[in-house]
Amino acid sequence: MDSLDALSNILSSIAEQPYNVTLHAQHIQLAQSDPALNPELESSLEMMTEFLAADPGHVWLPLIHEKQKKLVLDHILGVEELLALYERAVRDYLCEYITHEYSASRELMIDQLFLYYEATCNLLSMVMQSTMASIRRRDLRNLVTCFLSNGREKG
What we know:
By secondary structure, the chain is an all-alpha fold. It has helices spanning about 5-15, 20-35, 40-50, 55-70, 75-90, 95-130, 135-155. The protein has two domains: about 1-50; about 55-155. It is elongated and about 65 Å long. The two termini are about 35 Å apart.
């Protein structure tokens, strides 16, 4: 049986028995074992958290790390999404090492955001000082919109 058939069978079984820990574990193991199913890993971890209190070491931290690889953490939306995931993990399964990693990551992300916004303020200040006489309100709005949309395209 190939991986896609196995995946289909496991997903069908999970649909019938969503609270079966063994099926969720098989789903995660299959996604981890086959590089072709690597995009399925995050989904398998996320699915388990929707139905069960998930083990922090085998589900929550790998899910957090998968999300962290994909998010742009120098953008507010990426940071908010990752912090929300940490908060879900802590609410679902309060344990010391998730709480510790959450605290450490939160401090790091706050520092990154502070530097990002500080650089943004400095850039806008330089633009304002050098072109204040010639910028009209509409032009400034277009500049800020362009700057913000460039930040979203990274994510």
